Amino acid sequence: MKTIAKAVQSEINVKKSQFICHLFPTKTKKESKEIILKVNEKYNDATHNCTAYIVTDGEGFDDDGEPGGTAGKPMINVLRKNELHNVTAVVTRYFGGIKLGAGGLVRAYSKSVLEAINEAEILEVDLYDVYTLVFEYSEIKTIDGEVRNNQLEVINKEYSDKVIYDVVSKDNRDIEKIFEKYGDKIIIEFKDKEVLVK
Predict the structure, then answer these.
(1) Which of 27, 53, 56, 145 has the largest count of CB atoms under 10 Å?
(2) Residue 34: how many CB atoms within 10 A of its CB?
(3) How far is the C-alpha of 63 from the C-alpha of 129, rounded, in Å?
(4) Cα–Cα distance between 189 and 198 in angstroms, integer?
């Protein structure tokens, strides 16, 4: 799976219309919608702010007033063709006075996203289930042993009144089964899906 390392911006001009594309790394629809809202606020004087996103819990696009199928759909198609995931694209258009027609709009919005992708640092990543383990300090040695023996990866550790590990299994081992033998000594909860660089 591919995604982008960080947010990028690019700009093209087509027949006096200005197209500004922003690409953002995002994980969820909620995150995408929050970013889209911020871009809309920043460019509230623009003629259109068209959007497309592909994230872990779905995908979507919006033409924002452009003729149906001429903006959001071409944008998401470019993301798909480039096999990008966990990314949100927003193309802001300032109309220059010359109509582009349906074909011209499709080409302009597609090119705008493609230019931004060319500017981006592309990462090869895998998606893993993240589990949270909560246990007493007295169990650290035992839990660390299980983590090591089962080739699990601890991606976050917290030490408060109890020890908290966020763990993933790179070969999709069932983490719950590994630790179920400890009964009430350890609390296991599914936390999230996490993207990790290969």
Answers:
(1) 53
(2) 13
(3) 33
(4) 25
Residue 96 tokens read as 């220059």
Q: Are residues 130 and 166 in the same domain?
A: yes
Do 17 and 107 belong to one domain? Answer: yes
* Contact present, 90 and 83 (Cβ < 8 Å): no
116 with 131, same domain: the answer is: no
Is 21 in the same domain as 68?
A: yes
Please report how the helices 101-119 and 72-81 are oriented relative to each other, as an axis angle in degrees rounded to 10.
40
Q: What is the 3-state secondary structure (H, E, C) of the chain?
A: CEEECCCEEEEEEECCEEEEEEEEECCCHHHHHHHHHHHHHHCCCCCEEEEEEEECCEEEEECCCCCCCCCHHHHHHHHHHCCECCEEEEEEEECCCCCCHHHHHHHHHHHHHHHHHHHCCEEEEEEEEEEEEEECHHHHHHHHHHHHHCCEEEEEEEECCCEEEEEEECCCCCHHHHHHHHHHHEEEEEEEEEEEEC
**pTM of the predicted protein model:** 0.75
Tens digits of residue pLDDT in 31-88: 999 999 999 999 999 999 999 999 988 999 999 999 999 999 999 999 999 999 999 9
